[in-house]
Automatic annotation (TrEMBL):
<feature type="compositionally biased region" description="Basic and acidic residues">
    <location>
        <begin position="116"/>
        <end position="132"/>
    </location>
</feature>
<dbReference type="GO" id="GO:0003676">
    <property type="term" value="F:nucleic acid binding"/>
</dbReference>
<dbReference type="Pfam" id="PF00270">
    <property type="entry name" value="DEAD"/>
</dbReference>
<keyword id="KW-0347">Helicase</keyword>
<dbReference type="InterPro" id="IPR027417">
    <property type="entry name" value="P-loop_NTPase"/>
</dbReference>
<dbReference type="InterPro" id="IPR057479">
    <property type="entry name" value="PRP28/DDX23-like_helical"/>
</dbReference>
<dbReference type="GO" id="GO:0005524">
    <property type="term" value="F:ATP binding"/>
</dbReference>
<dbReference type="InterPro" id="IPR014001">
    <property type="entry name" value="Helicase_ATP-bd"/>
</dbReference>
<keyword id="KW-0067">ATP-binding</keyword>
<dbReference type="GO" id="GO:0006397">
    <property type="term" value="P:mRNA processing"/>
</dbReference>
<feature type="compositionally biased region" description="Basic and acidic residues">
    <location>
        <begin position="742"/>
        <end position="758"/>
    </location>
</feature>
<dbReference type="Pfam" id="PF25430">
    <property type="entry name" value="DDX23"/>
</dbReference>
<dbReference type="InterPro" id="IPR014014">
    <property type="entry name" value="RNA_helicase_DEAD_Q_motif"/>
</dbReference>
<feature type="compositionally biased region" description="Basic and acidic residues">
    <location>
        <begin position="38"/>
        <end position="50"/>
    </location>
</feature>
<feature type="domain" description="Helicase ATP-binding">
    <location>
        <begin position="366"/>
        <end position="563"/>
    </location>
</feature>
<feature type="compositionally biased region" description="Pro residues">
    <location>
        <begin position="244"/>
        <end position="253"/>
    </location>
</feature>
<dbReference type="InterPro" id="IPR011545">
    <property type="entry name" value="DEAD/DEAH_box_helicase_dom"/>
</dbReference>
Length: 758
């Protein structure tokens, strides 16, 4: 009997009692617990092998199965998304209902407040006398402390004060008239100078002269050629009959009526000639009025005056060696993309991307890059610096032999270094717009990811590498990467890299590149750009020039051209700067008011510390505002997810430290809030530069408490607000830390005198 057979009592067993049946069941269970026979084991093994045998399906069946599985996954994902969306909408509705109830509660509380009391009636004379009498009795019993009158010495009373305020100083150090005396307004004949219009002066002079000589008759026409000017009188007769003798001839030197008429006639001719003549300024004005605008001329017909007006319009200032290293000619900017000298393939990509008109920094820096010049650029935020060094770099890469399997391990052809991971990824994204169409590979090397994987991908062949100096130097030290064929280097935000302590890493990376192809140090020397030697080319963009940046420029750049775009001492005019002077415990309430009643999201909120960012972000999340956080304490994946979510609209608010203050470009940001005042004015400038980009308007609101480290930056903040024609709050202008340095030093030395003046 097999193990599958069950014990059932037969008809003969029905006569058995319960004890016998129970014994039979126990024996049957004991027999089933015994091991199966060999035949049973073989049958079970054969059945299991049949079940494990693979089932072979046709291609159509496999595709149908995959399609069905994919469809099922999509349905599951759709259901999950719908559930999550419904849950989010339900949560947001709850938050809105809670806020609405809170507003109604506050409104009802305000309405329940008691009305203000009416003004009390003035006291009568009897009441005043009674109060005075009670006060005298109280003073008599309790005593009163009388203030001693301070007796001033005669020497102090009549001492002359030699101190004066900064507003009374007429020196060139503090007088605002002399702040920008080197920035004269050059109009080049296109307007007034010192309030005088030369053309109007000449018109008034001509009108006065015409009125003065209007009554003088016009001179007679000149005699025909060959005829004398006057007909001589007939000769006198030989005999003279008459009593009157002929008049004697006029003595020499005496003026007769005829000579006076001739003199008047000559003077009139000279004056009329002077009236009808044009001065040199009139001739130049007529010449300029009849000339075409530089936008209507070809680039070959541009004059020096046209180039000056062009640079003035686009706020371009150049210094240093601007001559072509191969030809020695002065390198001019271009006006339109077809005049840039770029490859036709690159011009087609520019048109496809949608860059219709170049910016000022692109007009000047791209020709310098195509001429293999070293460039130091200082430009406003959002002025198109990335495109200014990427396009010449792509032109250089297209002129090089393509990377093969043999040369892939020698490193990239071009290198771009930036201080932060976010800026590196933004430059990589901007470069891929152009490089993807040209089949040029771009790869970023940043911290937070596997260095072995990054080294493996780089050794497969990369034309452009974008990296942070710390991770790149680490990879070079550990021999994961080399830079043996890199001759194009870009240092973006060089001053920020130095401030973050990356000066040794930047120097180590530059030293790891070839040195035999540096351009000669002599600025008058010419080089052969078409030869076999590929000279190194270095771009450096920096907002300031501290000594460390100057050392790098002096050691690694050869005869650089300096390009300045716009005024770096002030922010852009299209940013409205609001200063809120309040206490620390009122910041969160003011922030909530700005988020509810201010410009719409996306909004960036800056804090000074990592812990402050996390605490503020959690508070905003609880209030119902989707918030992302980014600071140096977050890992790379979290930072990337936060940036992408903020760009896509998943998060309405981005709370960040100064790590997002430079270079990060997020479209649509109309409002930037400095929850904590930055520690220096440069950080303030870069923070508010995240809005008002690409010619759009923006608002920057800063919370100022006037305590702690904020005192070191208040004076610079006031000066910046005045230069930008922004409103300076009275609390800020009266703050002791916002006064000029001379007054602060005087207040420290003479605190009693300052208190007495108050």
């Amino acid at each position: 009997m097999s193990t599958s057979t069950m014990f059932r009592p037969s008809a003969d067993d029905e006569d058995m009692d319960e004890e016998e049946l129970e014994a039979l069941r126990q024996r049957e269970a004991k027999r089933r617990q015994q091991q199966a026979s060999l035949e049973e084991k073989m049958a079970e093994r054969k059945h299991a092998a049949t079940l494990d045998r693979p089932i072979y399906m046709t291609k159509r069946e496999r595709e149908a199965a995959e399609l069905e599985a994919k469809k099922e996954e999509e349905e599951i994902q759709q259901l999950m998304d719908e559930a999550e969306r419904a849950q989010r909408q339900e949560y947001m509705q709850k938050v809105r209902d809670a806020l609405r109830e809170q507003r109604e509660r506050e409104r009802s509380n305000r309405s329940a407040l008691p009305l203000p009391k009416k003004e009390e009636q003035p006291k009568t004379k009897e009441e005043l006398d009674r109060e005075k009498e009670l006060q005298q009795i109280k003073n008599a019993y309790l005593g009163v402390r009388k203030k001693k009158k301070k007796v001033m010495k005669i020497s102090e009373k009549f001492r002359f004060s030699f101190d004066w305020g900064a507003e009374e100083d007429t020196s060139t150090d503090l007088n605002p008239l002399y702040e920008k005396k080197h920035e004269a307004l050059l109009l080049f004949g296109r307007g007034l100078r010192a309030g005088i219009d030369r053309r109007e002066q000449l018109q008034k002079r001509d009108a006065i002269l015409q009125d003065r000589y209007r009554d003088i008759p016009a001179p007679p026409p000149p005699p025909p050629p060959g005829e004398p000017d006057e007909v001589p009188p007939p000769p006198p007769d030989e005999e003279y009959f008459g009593d009157i003798p002929p008049p004697p001839p006029p003595p020499p030197g005496e003026e007769t009526a005829e000579t006076s008429a001739a003199t008047d006639k000559q003077r009139l001719e000279e004056k009329l000639k002077m009236m009808n003549s044009k001065s040199w300024l009139d001739k130049m004005n007529d010449r300029y009025d009849s000339a075409k605008h530089y936008t209507e001329k070809s680039i070959e017909d541009m004059t020096e005056r046209d180039w000056r007006i062009f640079r003035e319009d686009y706020e371009i200032v150049t210094k240093g060696n601007m001559r072509h290293p191969g030809t020695g000619k002065v390198i001019r900017p271009f006006r339109y993309w077809h005049e840039s000298g770029l490859n036709e393939e690159i011009l087609a990509v520019i048109k496809k991307v949608g860059y219709e008109k170049p910016t000022g920094v692109q007009m000047q820096c791209i020709p310098l890059g195509l001429a293999c010049k070293d460039v130091i650029g200082v430009a406003k935020t959002g002025s198109g610096k990335t495109c200014a060094f990427v396009l010449p770099m792509l032109e250089y890469i297209l002129s090089q032999p393509p990377i093969t399997k043999e040369t892939a391990s020698e490193g990239p052809l071009a290198l771009i270094m930036a201080p932060t991971r976010e800026l590196v990824q933004q430059i990589e994204e901007e470069t891929r717009k152009f490089a993807g169409e040209l089949k040029i590979r771009v790869y970023s090397v940043v911290g937070g990811l596997s260095i072995e994987e990054q080294g493996f991908i780089a050794n497969q062949g990369v034309e452009v590498m974008v990296a942070t100096p710390g991770r790149l130097n680490d990879a070079l030290d550990r021999r994961y990467m080399v830079l043996n064929q890199c001759n194009y280097v870009v240092l973006d935000e060089a001053d920020r890299m130095i401030d973050m302590g990356f000066e040794p890493q930047v120097k180590a990376v530059l030293d790891a590149m070839p040195h035999s192809n540096l351009k000669p140090a002599d600025e008058n020397a010419t080089i052969d750009l078409e030869g076999d030697i590929k000279y190194r080319q270095t771009y450096m963009f920096s907002a300031t020039m501290p000594p460390a940046v100057e050392r790098i420029a002096r050691n690694y750049l050869r005869n650089p051209a300096y390009v300045y775009i716009g005024d770096q001492a002030s922010t852009k005019d299209n940013i409205t700067q609001n200063i809120e002077f309040l206490k620390e415990n009122k910041k969160k309430d003011k922030l909530l008011d700005l988020l509810q009643n201010g410009p719409p999201p996306p909004i960036i909120v800056f804090c000074n510390g990592k812990k402050g960012c996390d605490v503020l972000a959690r508070s905003l999340d609880k209030m119902g505002f989707p918030t992302a956080v980014i600071h140096s304490g977050k890992d790379q994946a979290t930072r990337e997810a936060a940036i992408e979510g903020f760009k896509s609209g998943e998060f309405e608010i981005l709370v960040a430290t100064d790590i997002a203050g430079r270079g990060i470009d997020i479209q649509g940001v109309e409002h930037v809030i400095n929850y904590d005042m930055p520690k220096d004015i440069e950080s303030y400038t870069h923070r508010i530069g995240r809005t008002g980009r690409a010619g759009k308007k923006g608002i920057a609101t800063t919370f100022v408490t006037g305590e702690g480290v904020e005192e070191n930056v208040l004076y610079d903040l006031v000066q910046m607000l005045k230069k930008c024609s922004q409103i300076v709050p009275s609390e800020l202008s009266r703050h002791p830390a916002a006064q000029p340095p001379e007054q602060r030093e005087y207040a420290k030395r003479n605190p009693k005198m300052v208190e007495a003046k108050r």
